[in-house]
Amino acid sequence: MEGSFTGGDEYQKHFLPRDYLAAFYSFDSGPVPEAEMLKFNLECLHKTFGPGGLQGDTLIDIDSGPTIYQVLAACESFKDITLSDFTDRNREELEKWLKKEPGAYDWTPAVRFACELEGNSDRWREKEEKLRAVVKRVLKCDANLGNPLAPVVLPLADCVLTLLAMECACCSLDAYRAALRNLASLLKPGGHLVTIVTLRLKSYMVGKRQFSCVPLEKEEVEQAVLDAGFDIEQLLHSPRSYTVSLAANTGLCFIVARKRPGP
Ligand SMILES: C[S@@+](CC[C@H](N)C(=O)[O-])C[C@H]1O[C@@H](n2cnc3c(N)ncnc32)[C@H](O)[C@@H]1O
Question: What's the CA-to-centroid distance between 240 and ligand 1, angstroms?
């Protein structure tokens, strides 16, 4: 239902990873907007984490969902990656891929594309193994908590990544602003936040279920990042959008921001 917030309980009960992957990450449906979005996201991540880009020891990905594409670039420049999501099913889907269990989702096309960006598409098997080795844990998270990974307390990280997620986990602009402050608390001073946000999106479908989003304007995202204690190093605004929202004038905002030192 439009207008009502779908919180953690709804995600836990009704967000089916396979429906989500089929809708947004199926690789056999030709050049649909979803595939273009994925390529765009992988290109942004390659530029951010590729040669001369961000590097460090630890990276935390908040609200990973059932997906691993978002850490394909970062696994080359960070030694210890944490994946996280609110729901048990999404974390199980991630573990399935990490442990190469039967029925694990096939990310090969995305991995090949990420390797192509790095200049060697034949390296995809090696890259999959690299990623599996670098992901050290999959944790429960709730972006609305002061410590989103509670009860686990991780050492402050060099980088926090969150893609297409905070706008889904939050019920209002105020909650979005608070969630960004929560993410900032996971970072070392000088550490980086890397985020991609869908703008102006009110809801999206996963199978037959509708999930709410807080519709955000670029300027609101920008201000929230600044107010959470970051300096913005890069902001890219793209008019790209998903099939469901082609008519809704949505878009994407890609941001790399550095946590300011001090309190
Ligand atoms: C649209 S998916 C994004 C998944 C993935 N990051 C991607 O790029 O495809 C939104 C994710 O947010 C998670 N989520 C919803 N509410 C949350 C909350 N309060 N805290 C953390 N994650 C939440 C859901 O379980 C879901 O996996």
Answer: 20
Instruction: Give 156-182 pLDDT, tens digit per residue.
Output: 999 999 999 999 999 999 999 999 999
Does the model's pTM come out above 0.90?
yes
Q: How far apart are CA 208 and CA 155, in angstroms?
A: 39
Cβ contacts of 149-152, under 8 Å, gap ≥ 24: 149/60, 149/82, 149/84, 149/186
- 83 Cβ below 6 A of ligand 1: no
The position carrying tokens 């080359």 is 76
The ligand 1 atom at the shortest distance from the C-alpha of residue 65 is 27
- Which residues are registered as beta bridge partners of 255? 195, 235
Q: What tokens appear for 235 in the block?
A: 């902001």
Q: Measure the CA dihedral 208/63/81/90, to 10°.
A: -30
The answer, yes or no, to whether any atom of ligand 1 lies below 6 A from the CB of 67, is yes
**Separation between Cα atoms, residue 219 and residue 66, nearest integer Å:** 29
- The dihedrals phi and psi of 183, each to the nearest 5 degrees, come to -65, -40
Please report the atom of ligand 1 found closest to the CA of residue 87: 25
Token digits for 223?
Answer: 């201000």
Count of CB atoms situated within 10 Å of the CB of 249: 10
